[in-house]
Amino acid sequence: MAAIDGLPPLREVIKNHDLVAKKQLGQNFLLDLNLTSKIARCAGDLSGADVLEIGPGPGGLTRGLLAEGARHVVAVEKDPRAIPALMEIAAAYPGRLTVLQGDALELDVSAHLKGPVKIAANLPYNVGTELLVRWLSPETWPPFWSSLTLMFQREVAERIVAPVRSEHYGRLALLAQWRSDARIVMSLPPEAFTPAPKVHSAVVHLTRLETPRYPADARVLNRVTAMAFNQRRKMLRSSLKALTPGIEEVLESTGIAPTARAEEIGLEAFCALARAISERESRS
Ligand code: SAM
């Protein structure tokens, strides 16, 4: 297959730099540059944006993002073995790729980015979920990014976009849908990766909303949904008992049946409940 950018095929890059995949770093690489370009296109027009890429590995998605016209890519990779391979890409795209070595959970990259910022990543699932929650929960809103295009294992992707009363509905769906439009835009079988993981994967695209979908205090909403879903099979009058005295009355005042369970309550109703709790707390 002809390379999209005159650089060697990824299999060769991996061989040249001895990038044997490490399980503890969640390394399952995408080697098909047509596929990585397709994922890059899911992020929309990149020509006027800086892209923050987490976990570039040998650089398949990085090359896709650059070939699709990203103004500037800032790539954060934990594995020092991948840095020389990424520097070769930086040399082929002068001034358009900044490579940072470190743990994305610890590194502050803000100084390297100019807005608008789009985030793209194919990450191990635990790191990806942790970063997603952080990106959706900054102290102030709107956040520094305008969209997120992220690969997850299929089940996590379904938890992000899940509608109320569905199997995967829970706190992640509420958080994501409160602050963004979230859609699954691509599905990938295990064979798309080298080595192949055990599970299917999916790309989720999240576009931030300028203001959260319904008003609520983020910390109170978080507290309410944590309590409700920690005991998701219990009735809310029991799972939320410790939230405030007279919880049944508060639930009824917001139109929620005290006998309902967390998975039956939509985002709008959870926000109304969070507002009612905030109001009570400000009175007491
Ligand atoms: N993006 C490449 C691709 O699509 O082929 C690699 C994907 S691989 C699933 C995940 C990458 O994330 C690996 O290169 C791994 O070293 C890197 N990684 C894992 N944990 C990380 C962390 N905490 N911070 C930055 N990179 C990390």
TrEMBL record:
S-adenosyl-L-methionine binds at residues 28, 30, 55, 77, 103, 122. Pfam families: RrnaAD. It is found in: Cytoplasm. Specifically dimethylates two adjacent adenosines (A1518 and A1519) in the loop of a conserved hairpin near the 3'-end of 16S rRNA in the 30S particle. May play a critical role in biogenesis of 30S subunits. This is Ribosomal RNA small subunit methyltransferase A. Its EC number is 2.1.1.182. It catalyses: adenosine(1518)/adenosine(1519) in 16S rRNA + 4 S-adenosyl-L-methionine = N(6)-dimethyladenosine(1518)/N(6)-dimethyladenosine(1519) in 16S rRNA + 4 S-adenosyl-L-homocysteine + 4 H(+). It comes from the Bacteria. It comes from Pseudogemmobacter faecipullorum. Belongs to the class I-like SAM-binding methyltransferase superfamily. rRNA adenine N(6)-methyltransferase family. RsmA subfamily. SUPFAM superfamilies: S-adenosyl-L-methionine-dependent methyltransferases. Residues 35-210 form the Ribosomal RNA adenine methylase transferase N-terminal domain. GO terms for molecular function: 16S rRNA (adenine(1518)-N(6)/adenine(1519)-N(6))-dimethyltransferase activity. InterPro entries: KsgA/Erm (IPR001737), rRNA_Ade_diMease-like_C (IPR023165), rRNA_Ade_Mease_Trfase_CS (IPR020596), rRNA_Ade_methylase_Trfase_N (IPR020598), rRNA_adenine_dimethylase (IPR011530), SAM-dependent_MTases_sf (IPR029063). Keywords: Cytoplasm, Methyltransferase, RNA-binding, rRNA processing, S-adenosyl-L-methionine, Transferase.
